[in-house]
Amino acid sequence: MNTVRDHVEELTWRGLLHDSMPGTREYLNQGPVSGYIGFDPTADSLHVGNMVQIMMLKHFQESGHRPIALVGGATGMVGDPSGKKSERNLLDEETLRHNQRCVGDQLARFIDFGSRTRPAELVNNYDWFKDMGFLRFIREVGKHISVGYMLAKDSVKNRMESGISFTEFTYQLVQGYDFYWLSKNKGCRLQMGGSDQWGNITTGAELIRRMDGGEAFALTTPLLTKADGSKFGKSEGGNIWLDAARTSPYKYYQFWVNATDADAARFAHIFTVWPRERVEALVAEHARAPHLRQLQKEVAAAITVMTHGRSELDAALRATEILFGGGTSEALGSLSEKQWLDVFDGVPQAEVPRDALSSGVPIVDLLSERSGFLPSKGEARRALKEGSISVNKTRAEEGRVIGTDDLISGRFILLQRGKKNYFLLKLG
């Protein structure tokens, strides 16, 4: 019994279909099939820029098919020239193995590797390349693809002026052999990827045809940019990582919740598994009241839960309320020390010794000389008289003395002037 939905239609309404080989839709609609996407383990974490391909695997599985995630231990040693202007540094095997394990753990948050009828599978192309010597490769694989065919690929042509090494030049053959190996050993006749991978994918399909007389198929996604044309997945601080140690769940949530209206609508299509009716209803509701930013909040929450889990989303929401909403001293107390440092990263800070607080410090002194939050005692007194100073989210008056009892989590005191001017005191 055919239990799959029309995956090409699903990708089309989500804005995820860029191109496909002839016959791909008919092949998918015949019944459950296997399809793969490759990930280069160039770091021990994937980042938001990888999310389109991660969601491609997830949507593929939700459509009733079997996804294969290939972590490129072998191709990671070579380096893909697609979209690159210069040669990349090559990693050693130990580093690649570590990165592969981390990437595999992250992918398991999005796709099901165990409990479904057709669970996903994680493979590593180093396993079939490690015992293949150079002479065997050029004899069994290289002879099937002409140099002219390889030179015609955009990934090669775009690097001819700046220079491309033989290593990167042969990358398309190595990736093409992955497709051939998976077709022969896993029955996988579909490769998916970004539109910049079209050349590598078609090389693989050509190898399958020439080496095995088989037929292969392909789907590619558009390269995603923000509504303003800037590169998706970057922030002022660089990559937005899926590893909580690199990008905190709070900052991760903030990346998504700060999307523009146009981007949020696209993100709802691409980065959720919501049915079409829900996506369209949320986009329409947002259009009626964009100032509420409900679409951004819903999308950010859904993606944060997928990536980090419900408890981390709840912590991110508490932190957001503390910074941008009313917040309370009780809410501050619910944050762990790491969350304090994540949430208030970038907020002006100062350290105070414990003995300075043990006997109590007049708030005027703490605001000025002891912390540097305000420039002078006079300014501190004026701010206190106007009622704009809060300590740990509670309004403070001029006669208050601050001591160790005011420390939250045994280490922090949050000073605030007005709604958004924060200063963090940390016990030294």
Structure description:
This protein has 428 residues and is an alpha/beta fold. The protein folds into three domains: 7-221, Rossmann fold (3-Layer(aba) Sandwich); 234-325, Tyrosyl-Transfer RNA Synthetase (Orthogonal Bundle); 349-427, RNA-binding S4 domain (Structural Genomics Hypothetical 15.5 Kd Protein In mrcA-pckA Intergenic Region, Chain A, Roll). It has 21 helices and 15 strands. It has helices at 7-13, 24-29, 51-62, 93-107, 126-129, 134-140, 147-151, 154-157, 166-169, 171-186, 198-212, 249-257, 261-270, 276-288, 294-308, 310-324, 329-333, 337-343, 354-358, 363-370, 377-385, and strands at residues 19-20, 34-39, 66-71, 121-124, 190-194, 217-221, 234-235, 238-239, 349-352, 361-362, 389-391, 394-395, 401-402, 412-417, 421-427. A six-stranded mixed beta sheet has the order 1-6-5-2-3-4, with helices on both faces. α10 (171-186) crosses α11 and α12 (249-257) runs antiparallel to α15 (294-308). It is elongated and about 85 Å long.
What are the salient characteristics of this protein?
five-stranded mixed sheet; about 45% helix; alpha/beta; six-stranded mixed sheet; Structural Genomics Hypothetical 15.5 Kd Protein In mrcA-pckA Intergenic Region, Chain A; Rossmann fold; about 425 residues; 3 domains; Tyrosyl-Transfer RNA Synthetase
What is the structure about, briefly put?
With 428 residues, the chain is α/β, with parallel strands linked by helices. It is built from 21 helices and 15 strands.
